[in-house]
Specification:
The chain is built from 14 helices and 4 strands. Strands 1-2-4-3 form a 4-stranded mixed sheet, sandwiched between helices.
């Protein structure tokens, strides 16, 4: 069994997967280090920033390489035959000479990257399948729950909608025994509580108010998206940790708003969180009131710190804008890292091909200036034809909306650089000849 497909996968995965992933990891890691010590940061802002970084992961990997192609690149070619986009890729160009033969060695690094790519894909498929199973459990829970008909509970729901500014229609459901309060459904939000909680008006009021904040912010839909990203990125150690942090700050931001508004007294609310924590073991992709005991300390500390700090009217739009900036910033950073002008290294294969073409065209040593100019003129005509041919192929493929193979861009840039090098030498020799001619005339 040949390892060529695995080696090829490792080569192409550098640009479209591992490179953008490395940029996201570096940017997110630095941002989390900067955010870590700031415990006084408003919980909603902390939630949106982390959420933006998590949502940036698929966008960075999916859009980063594509946006890099749209970035402006240095003009390497005269006006004739310039293609619309010329991204740089570190892949072997096609054989430019009849006798050129690819090396028979195995690229161990590319082989390792190819195997790692396959392993990551298998882990993502496995975790994604489990995530679909959890979504199915959530759907079954919605089918088992029955509408709450108690007038007092309905009155509490309507009071919460008016108090918290929730315009959507919300259904209040009673789930099986032991169900923790949670919210799901983005088109028709539904809040599920257990029968015991539905019979305790004061505790129900706090639980429903907490879930209505999730409804107002659309957290049910975000929880599904974030859970899917965390499942697909399970092989990355930073992704599950960031997903847990997003969940923790999402809940603590709701706690802080309830306490600051005076809707939930800190003492009774903390006891409610503690009692519900034992029932939060089932990992469903839906925001819920219950706090895992590992997060309870953080949530209680957040409530204490922001109990007397009501949020300003500008906090919500500013927090959303900050999350969007964090998300788009990582995507743009990934795209900028792929600009050809910022890449200083050339692959060994491309360098070998350049040396091969140079040896084919021949040196200019031990020649007179006129012979060197004549040789350069022939070489530039040859290279001009090759560059125009490569540029024409790129234009033709782009006009027909077909994918341009990376080696076509590599061939174009390689030939283009060689042409410019000879053009520079040609103009220098012409300038020296003209200088000698003018100096000879002036001496007469």
């Amino acid at each position: 069994m040949t390892l060529d497909p695995l080696e090829h996968l490792g080569r192409i995965s550098v640009g479209w997967f591992w490179g953008p992933l490395a940029v996201w990891t570096a940017g997110t890691g630095i941002a989390l280090l900067l955010l870590g010590p700031h415990r006084t940061l408003q919980p909603l802002l902390a939630y949106r920033l982390r959420q933006g970084m998590l949502l940036a992961l698929p966008l960075t990997v999916g859009l980063g390489p594509q946006l890099a192609r749209l970035m402006p690149t240095p003009q390497l070619l005269p006006t004739w035959g310039t293609p619309r986009s010329t991204p740089s890729v570190a892949l072997t160009p096609p054989a430019l000479l009849p006798d050129a033969a690819p090396p028979a060695t195995v690229d161990v690094f590319a082989l390792i990257l190819g195997a790692a790519t396959v392993w990551v894909a298998l882990l993502a498929l496995r975790a994604g399948w489990r995530f679909l199973g959890r979504l199915n459990l959530l759907r079954r829970l919605g089918r088992l729950a029955v509408p709450v008909t108690d007038p007092g509970a309905i009155a509490i729901l309507e009071w919460g909608r008016s108090e918290l500014g929730v315009e959507q229609r919300v259904d209040l459901l009673e789930g099986p025994p032991g169900t923790i309060p949670m919210t799901f459904g983005w088109r028709r939000p539904r809040i599920v509580v257990c029968a015991t909680l539905a019979q305790q008006p004061e505790r129900l009021r706090m639980a429903v108010a907490h879930e209505l904040i999730h409804v107002r912010r659309g957290d049910a839909a975000w929880a599904v998206i974030e859970g899917l990203i965390a499942s697909l990125g399970v092989a990355h150690p930073l992704v599950p940790a960031l997903a847990k942090a997003v969940d923790r700050h999402r809940e603590s931001s709701c706690d802080a708003e309830l306490v600051a508004r005076g809707i939930a007294p800190p003492g009774p609310y903390a006891r409610l969180l503690y009692e519900l924590g034992a029932g939060s073991a089932l990992p469903l992709p839906a925001p819920g009131l219950a706090a895992r005991h590992s997060n309870l300390t953080h949530r209680l500390e957040t409530m204490r710190r922001f109990a007397n700090k009501p949020e300003s009217r500008h906090l919500r739009p500013l927090s959303s804008a900050a999350g969007a900036v964090a998300c788009l910033g990582l995507v743009v950073l990934s795209a900028c890292s792929g600009i050809p002008g910022l890449r200083s290294s050339v692959s060994d294969e491309a360098r070998d091909a350049a040396e091969e073409i140079t040896s084919r065209l021949g040196p200019m040593a031990d020649e007179t200036r006129e012979a060197a100019l004549e040789r350069l003129d022939v070489q530039m005509a040859y290279l001009r034809e090759r560059v125009e041919g490569a540029a024409g192929r790129i234009d033709e493929l782009e006009r027909s909306n077909q994918r341009v193979a990376p080696h076509v861009y590599e061939e174009y840039q390689l030939l283009n650089q060689m042409y410019l090098q000879r053009l520079e030498t040609y103009e220098t020799l012409k300038m020296e000849r003209e200088t000698e001619i003018r100096l000879g005339r002036s001496s007469r």
